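S.,

Sequence below, as promised.
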Amino acid sequence: MNKLFVYILLFFSSITSAQKDSLDIGDRYADDQIYFMVSYNQKFSQPNSVTRSGFSYGLSTGFMKDIILNKQGTISFALGAGYGYDFYNHKLKVEQINQSTLFSTDNTLNSNTYSSHNLELPLEVRWRTSTANKYKFWRIYSGIKFLYNFSNNFEFLSENDVKTSYANIDSYNKLQFGLTLSGGYDVINFHIFYGLSPVYKNATINAESIETKVLKFGFVFYFL
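The prediction came back faster than expected:
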């Protein structure tokens, strides 16, 4: 995973360094950017039998293409592509038995985690106080982000330290999406992702539908 982050950052750096050199050509300019996010993740809309999750986090990086909507360059539309990694310390026991996903709770487990690797496709409407020659500015970006999961792994450790893991379970919702909001000044900005789609599909526990969604909040770093 670390090597993948390095390759992505090197590739995007070569693109954005050329873009920064050309920002002051004419009144119109694009604010193409590399982004890097770190977030604290939590679940909501959990089943009644599932208690609050433990410490969970997310990391993501990618590139945003800026499309100017006014002459001053203060309003724009942006679309991007990137990679995201999420790690969850949760309380829902997930098993894949005979091509069926089973959900339960087990308070005797020593650990219960899962991780996911996602393709990110963010879309944003942007407002900022930048100019063609001003690289430090206030910004508010809002939009929607689509996540396509290409790998997930669930793992738990029993009280006897027996490890069990399942990869790419059938009930994991591969296509998820949510609302995003970012804002701040210069490089460091706050970021919120509010999930609108459930993590699992066709999932139940004790005859109750599992509608678990994800809330992420943290910081996003923008680099020209």
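The chain has one domain: 2-18+33-188+195-223.

Coffee later?
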